[in-house]
Queue: 2 jobs
Job 1
Amino acid sequence: MKKRKGLIAAVVFIILVTAINQFLNYALVQPGLGRTMFYECKNNDYECLILGASHGSYGFDSSKMSEELGMSTMNMCIGGEYMYDAYYILKYALKYKKLKTVILDLDYQYFVNQHDESILFNNVYNAYPACNEKFGYYMHKMAREEYRGTFLRWTNYWQCYKTVGKTIKLKQSDAYKNYSPEVVSMNKYDTYMGNGFVSRSKDYKKSTTSCLDWDESKLDREEGEYVGKIVNLCRKNGINIVLTTVVQDPDTVSEKCSGFAQADAYISDLAAQLDVKYLNFNKLKFDVLDRTTDDFYDKEGHMYGDMAEKFSAVCAKAVKEAIADTLNEEDYFDKDMSNLYKK
Amino acid sequence: MSFISAGFLFTIMITAFIYYLMPKKYQWVVLLIMSFAFYATYGIKYMGYIIFTIISSYIFTIKMEACVDKKNRRRLLIACLLCNFGILTGMKYINFFISNINAVGALFGSTAKLPGFKIIMPLGISFYTFQTMSYVIDVYQKKYEAQKNIFKLALFTAFLPQLLQGPIGRYDRLAPQFFEGHDFDIKNVEFGMQRMAWGLAKKLILADRAYVAANTVFSSLNTYSGVHIVFALLLFSIYVYCDFAGGMDLVIGASEIFGIHLDENFRQPYFSKNLGEFWRRWHISLGTWMKDYIFYPFSISKHMLHFGKFAKKRFGKTTGRVLPICLANILIFFIVGVWHGASWKYILYGLYNGIIIALSNLLKPVYASMAKKCHINTSSRYWKVVSIIRTFIIVNIGWLFDACLTAELAFKAFTGIFRGFTFSVLANGSLLRLGLNMRDYKILIVGTVILFITSVMKEKGINLREFVAQRPLVVRWALYIILIFATAPFGYVGSTTEFVYAQF
């Protein structure tokens, strides 16, 4: 009898803690753009999927890419998206779409900034809709990530306790239920253009945030492993895949040129091993795409919206040619980065 | 899989669920499977080492038991110890030896260098090797019989919660608990979860936060003044205690859920009145291991007995009696230093502790006569407080070896304390540039005060856990829920650090 009572108490306690936790998640976690993007990922029509992190989010103008590629494009680049996040996004997209092309954008910083067990980078996981694929994703996250990231998702939002009423009301609104980007509190200089592209206005004053240095001793092998998994998954599904790196602030590339060159060599080697094309647009000739530091809103190299439009046109053309195997790299790229960025 | 990962907590929950569904006879099998499955998450390739330790210990102890000849038994013991400590030494210290040989070679003008090995240490090797070897030595000493079931021995070696950072358990205390089976008891589950939540709070609210500022100072010593170094050292002492003791709370709490009570590894160490006492309250399981398997055998060895006789003749009765103990202490702490890591800073850390303890033993009569001359009542409360503060300072100086990357930097940090020691820097906002903001400091202060109060209560023999357990259900549950959720708003969010002792 005592044993049974104890068991019931334990179960009731667990249910109570879970219920309170779910309530706190609902009342505190603010709706992010990722939720809208996953909705679009499931419901919009597209044949080309772009995966990557924040550089891609601000760099790939989906409508321009669609226009130049000749196929509708969905940009699923999300800030903090590691390669294993990208892998599960691809799995999610494949559940609903028949893809022709995947563009996988690689930011070298993610290769040397080992994904620790902190809960700072949980944007993708938090936005990922509940589905069978999420189970594998959850197991992966849970095995390595600090428990607050998966159990107490409201950790990063506890300061929102003052607006609990507003958040609950918002989550009950039609706009939220319809996955409208209106419910997302975005930077006032950002505009969500649809299909995953975020355009930042030039009114935003340039920030000084810069890139991490390339440091091979800090290399996270898992990033490379997941690039391989993504490539294999694409091959298995008959999808063309191209690896890219978007253009960054030329001043930063010039300043950290040897690091950028080493990162390029590492990723190029990885691409060669996987037998896929890698287009590093930091090697893009200036006469193909003229760019200055003023086209980027931080030293790290995130683009303003108008630069993204210009870049996307060039990028789509190069990707299209790469897929058709007609790309003459010399038309676009300078092999010697130090020469390209010589002041 | 880290102890603060959701995976670990989930594994404990699932294991507990299956464990209590199983007939008592097979509960240990559940623990064994889960322990190895958990260890495998770090990489299957590392499992070879732990499996070797299990198999070799099993074979040698069985053979030892069957062997009548004393000399042969001893040979078997030595062979087993050599095999296992050999692996530990090889894995942990080979590159250290090589770098020292190269350094000595360079001193004599040699340009030739021995290449180092790329070694990734199997996790928990220091802990499980010491734990299993204690079993081997005990069987040799006929304290108990050898375990005939290799899988049972495997569980003793690889028990999930304690595998990575101890406490270093003893077979005679653990085996009955592992194999007798347990009925579901809500008190065990409640106490276990309570303890785990307390450990997580220590780690995430205090340790990780304190580490940020301490590490900022110690990784850039030239930038900071003496006051900053002292401040960082105080934060480091909070960090290292909360990290290790928090980890122990998790381990002991998780085991408690299964009805298994591990030995305590801490007893309010910062309330120690001398360094010797500190080491009897800090990492207790390592201290007792050293005492039982090195200190006593060494102290009563033939050579030490001869030395004791010689010292008594040469230096008089008192000094002659203390001198062998001093030597044994220096040896013990040298080994403790080496155990902590393959680096001169750890060796010096060990020697620092050993020499201070040896000197304080030797000079005990001098201290006593000085106290008498100065009319100090050494049993007064005032003197106890002075002794605690003095010991805390000595311990903190020792932490410099741990906090800095090299021994050289530790000395630099120590001399740096006396450079520009002006309290005015505390008011110029520089503390807010150490990676923590005002809210972080407030949380650190409040958290440390709570920890201090609970420690004082424990020191006074008040059993806080029983006190909480006797409250009405609503109060208890409210308290637990607050504790479980406290790490969300008050825990440090940033790059969390792995438990420091899990790296040994």
Job 2
Amino acid sequence: MAACQSGFDSLTYPRPPDLRDLLRAALIETDTRATARRLPQPVFRFGGTSVAIRLSGTPPLERLLPMIGSRADAAAHDTAVLDVIGGALEGHEGLLPPAEARSRTVLRATRDIYYLWLNEADGYLTAIDRRAGRGLVWFTAPDRIASWHVARPFLHAIKGFSLETSWTPIHAASVAIEGKAVLIVGQSGAGKTSIALSCVTQGWSYLGDDAVIVRANPARVGALYSSARLRADTFARFPEIMKACLAVSDDAGEQKAEVDMTLLPAQRAAEAEIRAILVPQPGDWSELRLAPMHKSDALRKLMEATRQSMIGDEAAVFAKLSTLVASVPCYHLAASGDPAVLGAGLAKLLD
Amino acid sequence: MQYRLSSSPNVSARSFGDEVVAANFVKGVYYSLLGPAAQIWDGLIAGVAIETVIAQTAALSDADAADFAAAANNLVQALLDEQLIEPAPDAAATAWQPVPGADGPYGLPVIERFTDMEDLLQLDPVHDVEEMGWPHVNPASTR
């Protein structure tokens, strides 16, 4: 009898639920919620991809929307859907890592699923069903959303949705003139924001200071966000930019001015051709210096900087970025503190 | 002996002609091969026998032939130790010709190893799981 019962069970339940099953069940729940709420769905457009954002939770979640760089109100037919959950999603806690694993970073990235749990602000999950074009971002404590989420919302979801496209989000700044851009690559504190905003004060168009999306063949960069984040030691250098400061946040003990670039008369660009990749050198330089660098070094810097904030799919990202680096000149940049010198010097790279 | 790129999904490499970058994403280690090391890499990945690769690349170097061969064999051993390449006795060789150095004869081949990301990963190790969920560790993630 027991054997018969066991056989019946295995026929009905051929395997225990896996992450995709758990995610799909949670997405059915969020579908139900969204249908009941009938709220408008702003659409986040990036690199040829459109994602409809559906908020489901308490009001702090709405802080995530203003800095989306390219937004529309209507979803196209092929738009992916991202549900953003704040607080509890009762009955679906099994999608979260078990309690003993929540102090760690947990990742599952395959062609089918992108699953990332980060131990910050009481926990934050991004889970994307790549086959279905559906996903969710789950803030378990929405009143503790980190300031960088407000400045760069849904960055991991963008990564999750972009695997099968020719685009990939990266950790870099970018500014452009007349559709031709430079990409400024470096880890946090390398000077990306200062260089980009110095160029903006000289008439360059702004694409981003920390996260942009790129593709190779042709080499192009797209804006993701309208935000900029200045470190406290640079506030005095950019008085005009600081006029668009919405707040000063505490980012892991470091003060950051949260700037909304849409409030400034400075131009913004949605997309541009990449004409050069720049890797800033540390130090306080009195003059602008550009020195060609090995492509292998540039690719390594690009991968390391991007891996710092965007985990997973490394082999696919490596393939995309290596093709990009192969087609664009790469330079070490010792940046002059004079914005006019910097802007004029970098403009020569666009010819 | 012939070799090929590691079959591990965690290893990738890209040749830019006169330089190569390789990476092991799980270890967080990146490798740079310049000049003669890049030529040797390209030859190995093309499936050419190591003896041929070393002989043809050494001909573009002004280093002593024995010194070059020793350095090249050390390089290949390092690539094996780092699990960037693996033996491929049945590999079908494709066309390969080493490219002379743009700045004159090559010196000795060396591999550079960069561990910045390794340190970061040790601070915040990523726990890769299988789709079956917790607490199954993905065995492919460990090499």
